[in-house]
Specification:
Layout: H1 16-24, E1 39-46, E2 56-65, E3 68-78, H2 97-100, H3 106-117, E4 121-124, H4 127-142, E5 150-152, H5 153-164, H6 179-185, H7 196-215, H8 222-226
Parallel strand pairs: 1-4, 4-5
Antiparallel strand pairs: 1-2, 2-3
Length: 236
Amino acid sequence: MSFLSRFRSKPNPRHPVFIRNRDAFLRVAHDTPINEFEFVVFDTELTGLDLRNDEILAIGAVRIRNLQIVAGDIFNSYTAPHRSAVNAQTFIHRITPQQLENAPSLANVLPNFVDYCGQSLLVGHSVGIDIGFINRAAGQLFDGQMTNPCLDTLQLAQTYTEKCWQHYYDRYAHMLYDLDSLSRRYQLPRFARHDALQDAVQTAYLFIFLVKHLQQYGLTTLKDFYHAGQSWRNIF
C-alpha cells in the first residue's frame, strides 16, 4: 500500500493553522529588504525520495531574525511513519525503530510545525524536496498547504559561485553543492549529518553566510533572492 493510498479517504477538515497560513501570505512585499524578514530554516529526514511511497521520519527547524540564529528557538520532532516504512533504511539517518515507536503521528506534528513557522519565510537545502513531502502530507491529511515563500541555499550557493567566478565557468563546474561540502568550503561550523535539527542549524549558518555575501553583489530584496538562481546554467 502506497503512502498516498493510505490517505485516500476524505481528509480531515482544514486545520485552522493552514487557514491562517494561507491568509498570511496572500500578499508578500517582494521589494522588502531581505534583512527585514524572519526565516525558519528546516530539514526533514525521510525514508526515501519517492513522494508516493516514502514518508517523513523527522522535522527539525531553527529561527533566524536580523540574520542571526535565535538561540533556543527550535522545532524538533520525530514522526511515526506507517509500519511498513520502518526498515533498515531508517538506520542511514541514525533513527532507529525504537526511537520512532512512541513518536507522535504526522497528523499531530504538522500543525505544530506550521504554527512554529508562522509568518516566517522558509529556507532549506534543496528545499523543494522537503516542502514537497510536507505539502503532500498536509494536502492529504488536512486539505491544506504551506504557502510560506521558500529560499533554497543550494541555488543561492550556485549563484554566489557564479558571481565570484563570472565568465570563468570552467573553474567551478566540478564543485560540489551538498551541504557538508559547502560548509567545509566556506569554513562554517559543521554538525552531525542525517539529523533534521543538526542539518537545519548547518543550513542556517550557510544561509546567513550566503545572504551577507550576495548583498555585496547588489542583492538586497526578497525579489532579488527569488531570482538569484535563474541565471545559473544547468551543468549537472
